[in-house]
Amino acid sequence: MLLTGYHKEIFNPTCNSLFQSVHCIAYLDEDIGEVLPYLNAELGGDTYIKDPPSVTFKANGKLITVHAKKIAVNALKNEAEAHAMLEWLKEEINRAWDNRTAIQPKYDGAAKPHILEIYKLLPGTNCRKCGQPTCMMFSSLAVDGIKGQGDCPSLTPEDAEKLRKYLDRFSRGAT
Predict the structure, then answer these.
(1) Fewer Cβ neighbours under 10 Å: the N or C end of the chain?
(2) Cα 90 from Cα 30, distance rounded (Å)
(3) pTM here?
């Protein structure tokens, strides 16, 4: 077992006092920097930084950054959800550490679709039928997986299929 414990700090976001969510920072009892490339491989990190080491990924609608000595999680409902998320992360960290000989470490983040490539596949009409003011805004949301081919009513079936194929190349587990 690599990580035995942590203590957490829960706070309201300072950027907007109207937010209903809380943020959490867990200060780790051990330095877990060595496990981060294995955790990145297992959890599909969006961003991996080598020095100082950290991995950032999304899980259950939360943005999570794991550093060598702390974990930051945003948009939590309450302290109970923070505790559950941290316990899950503790298990994942220890599982990755215990299985590191069978895991190929990953020292980079996940590939992401390019906003302009998505934009080229859209009609370019800025019709707002998708709920966004422009096709470029739709494209920026598609980069993060928030929008997809089924969310643009103006796409022809052929163009929707092209967009699906393009976005599928960046899905978790794609080769």
Answers:
(1) C
(2) 11
(3) 0.69
